[in-house]
Design brief:
Blueprint lengths: L1 H17 L4 H17 L2 H11 L4 H8 L3 H17 L3
Helix pairs in contact: 1-5, 3-5, 4-5
Length: 87
């Protein structure tokens, strides 16, 4: 169940960014996203930034030399944080 929930969260994030209708929407949401990312702990922020760039959890775990499950947990917590802050 957790695995599917995490997958759905990431799909939600991609859908939000791809649904921005025009440049002003894009700029507004990019500023909101940047603001929320700044509130995350540095390690979690780095993980979500790499994921938003399109990298896989496997790639991120290798690049940062951390366990795959740690990447998944941090992604889940970052997305949960953004949801709780109405993003």
């Amino acid at each position: 169940m957790k695995r599917e929930h995490s997958k759905i969260c990431l799909q939600d994030a991609r859908r939000v960014t791809s649904s921005w209708q025009n440049e002003s929407d894009s700029e507004y949401y990019r500023q909101r996203l940047d603001g929320l990312l700044k509130l995350l702990p540095p390690g979690r922020r780095k993980i979500i930034e790499l994921k938003l760039q399109g990298h896989t959890a496997e790639f991120i775990s290798e690049k940062l030399n951390i366990k795959h499950q740690t990447v998944r947990n941090q992604l889940f917590r970052a997305i949960e944080f953004m949801r709780n802050n109405n993003f």
